[in-house]
């Protein structure tokens, strides 16, 4: 880190040291003993502009306080049937760790339907996984590998991706915006695998619109990406959809408990039990209320809307050129 960067960190720290006690407390819950590394993440997200990074972090701390994010891991999604429905339609899991100790999160982009619960349940689930990653998974990795580990890698499975998935752009934009504003620079690399033509066409449209910092993090791998991924992790840490010779399947795995999307997988069992224990530790005097934990949605980035509209426009052009207009007639992602 250069002198200019060190100066930026010092200025930023001096500003954050002046916040009130509630903000200091939630900041401690955020940084988990690594405040400087957390400040650096926010500085990176704002190209090392101290004023912009300061505003971003203050907004984040306010968001956490107003939405009680520090206690979200003590608020289970109940009943269990609803939680299972969320897990079956929002495919994400922890498959293992990279050779450098970074947690490997698998995401079933192509087969996640987000259609079995309200938006609030999916947002709650996503934030809980983020918080569990930051409060449990990353600290354990740090202890195990003897150095600070503050990021993860994500393997995004595009198996089964259809145009209809773009109709979920509103929910996906909400989740993405929450991550961008409140969990910046937590993902080291995004690996795209099992990419069909639809994704390839979409990526050509989206890639030029992304910031250079984001583009550098995305690697589109050939096929299921197994050979490339084995360079950074062992076989046991590969997501189940990367273990086969051909294209994998996000939902139907021959590896039983190795299907890291399954509620029966050890990661989801640990997460579920952890949330249940945290809830019991509060010694609530009243039964847990059924219903989702509502979190204020941040205002979505105008650039995200522009990207969505561009994708829609390009796909309609593609349909017109190839006589597929009927296929695209129901696609209207800009209004979602």
UniProtKB/TrEMBL annotation:
Question: In terms of domain of life, where is this protein from?
Answer: Eukaryota
Q: Which residue range or ranges hold the CRAL-TRIO domain? A: 79-239
Q: Which Gene3D superfamilies match?
A: CRAL-TRIO lipid binding domain
Q: Which SMART domains match?
A: CRAL_TRIO_N (SM01100), SEC14 (SM00516)
Any single Pfam family the record assigns to this protein: CRAL_TRIO_N
Q: What PANTHER family has UniProt attached to this entry?
A: CRAL-TRIO DOMAIN-CONTAINING PROTEIN (PTHR46226), SEC14P-LIKE PHOSPHATIDYLINOSITOL TRANSFER FAMILY PROTEIN (PTHR46226:SF6)
Q: What's the name of the protein?
A: CRAL-TRIO domain-containing protein
